[in-house]
Amino acid sequence: MTVRRPLVLMLIVSLLTVPGLWPVAPPPPAGAQGTEVWIKATGSGARKLNIAIPEFTVTTVSPGADAGTAGKLLASVAGADLTFSGRFSVVAATGAIPVNNPDALRQSWAEFAAAGAHAGVHGLVALRGDRAEVEMRLYDLTDPDHRMIASKKFELPAAQLRRLAHKVADEVALQFTGELGVADTKIAYVSGPVGAKEIVMADYDGAGSVPVTRNGSINLSPVWSPDARSLAFTSFRQGYPDLYRVFPFERRPEQTLAAFVGINSSPSFSPDGKSLAMTLSVTGNPEIHVLNLATGVMRRLTRHAGIDTEPTWSPTGRQLAFVSDRGGAPHVYVMDAEGANVRQITSGGFHTQPRWSPRGDLIAYTQRAGTHDIWIVDVDGSNPRRLTSGGDNQGASWAPNGRHLAFQSSRLGRWQLFAVLFDGSAPTPLTRGQAESTSPSWSPRLP
Amino acid sequence: MLSRCSHVMLALLLVLGVVLVGCAKRPATTQAAAPSPTGAAATTPGATTAAAQPSSGGGPTSSSGTTSGGTTTTPAPTATPTNRPAPSEFAAVADLKDIHFDFDKYDIRPSDAKTLDGNAGWLKSNPNHLVLIEGHCDERGTNEYNLALGERRAKSTMNYLVSQGVQASRITIISYGEERPVCSQKTEECWAKNRRAHFLVKPR
User: Fold this and answer.
1) Is B36 close to A447, i.e. CB distance below 8 A?
2) B90 to chain A, minimum CA–CA distance in Å?
3) N or C: which end of chain A has fewer CB within 10 A?
4) CATH value at residue A249
5) ipTM entry
6) Helix (H, G, I), strand (E, B) or coil at B39
7) d(CA A222, CA A239)
8) B66 and A294: CB-CB below 8 Å?
9) Position A274 pLDDT exceeds 80
10) Residues of chain B contacting A330 with CB distance shorter than 8 Å
11) Nearest to B32 by CA among A174, A252, A39, A444
């Protein structure tokens, strides 16, 4: 019997010139038990950890289950997740490590280490009927004995293999950065041309898109609730722009949240999920309101003759940013959660779509100057900088860890979703469909 | 094997200047099952009902004035407001002409005021018709802002008609933002056509 070992394909050499590759590990942060932080830097210029991800090994296949290409798919998806994170370079390989063969494992890791890998992920897959389980084992390849650093098991319905890979990638990120990754997340967005827009959702990387609405009307502005279980959105499905809420993972009826005279739009959940900020024009003019979802009590926050719209909460829930044209053109303003202490954040252009970052220190927005681009600014209004270029770029949505932003771009022709790191580097396409894809909302980590 | 490994590691360390200190001391084995969400397939029949839905309590009755205080107890909206006629019941008539707006503006231009005078005249001569005013924007700017801008355009138009003697109670407004353009090219001529207020009527 021939033992099939992974064939290391790619040598990552870009880091060979970097002196002092890794900082001495600092003490683990509070709350990250047993995890020592290796990757401390935050920007895309940070040095990356070279990680080997051979095909996962399928150890158990129950009759009727299809092993097929599961091992290859899992390694490929987890590798793509870690590459996307901006913190890892994947040392690729073909072939799986045989099960229960320590010599073959040792030989494989030695070859990966020789090719520059600092760590290795070995996945063991069990397919049992309609359930799939993956055990992830993480090895330190800089250690002569290839010591195992961590292992963890995940189980999901067999139809969700890609999610298992996302969970492995997020766990690897946790082990090396002290913070769970964001691969196990969804993106909701608007799909379809002008006049026929429906809400869909997909994995964060654009894979596996499924419809959320199918009402044949115009549906806009999807936004996830903080528990990642529901989406609020604007729809014309009863003739007028009203606000609705759906539970895409549950058999639970759609809710009408606001159907006042005028516009009911621009939803934004408070960080605790108990309230929804929105724009209503029931008082005769677009104003920011906050609906208490438990009591139905509506509070009006703005009071100005101009347009006030697009509220976005600070992560503390104590402030909101919003758009107002009270200065003559639309700009970003901030107020406290009671509507007081309004102050202008941006000026001198045409600025819409503010999105407060999950870390609280930045506000992303869209600037129109001929075409549109995504910008970010410190919350005190200082240091505005442009993140995108090429084509038209709109509608930013932060990843839950605040490292990436998804947005819609026309740079390749029709509208598609892209992601970019918060310093503007590594623009990456997320969707590649035939339909127009716009208005992304990046979910919190899935429960 | 081991010696080869050591040599490899030594070489790596020399080349990279790697100082990798302190891996976790023990393999931590934990188990985590993640049963949900499950993708498109809804798998929870008879799940809990809408706990967060505001109880209905009589929706607002007109576009003029409901809240006035900072924290009021505006009743939650109902799912089916009775005071909004279905837009699909309205139809265009040749006598009511569109008016147009400058970019990012919602004031009525003098030439369009003349058009509105004509529209007001027709509405006063046909008092048994209700009118729906649609506010529209071009594709520039972004969706939600344009929804608000279209609302302001429809509202400005309504206010002008009321000032010319058309009963406010006959008028309903709706904003489509940039979602229903009449022209799809990316030219100023086309954008100018899309920045409009459009009129539809139906018998009372």
Assistant:
1) yes
2) 11
3) N
4) 2.120.10.30
5) 0.89
6) coil
7) 18
8) no
9) yes
10) 104, 141, 145
11) A174
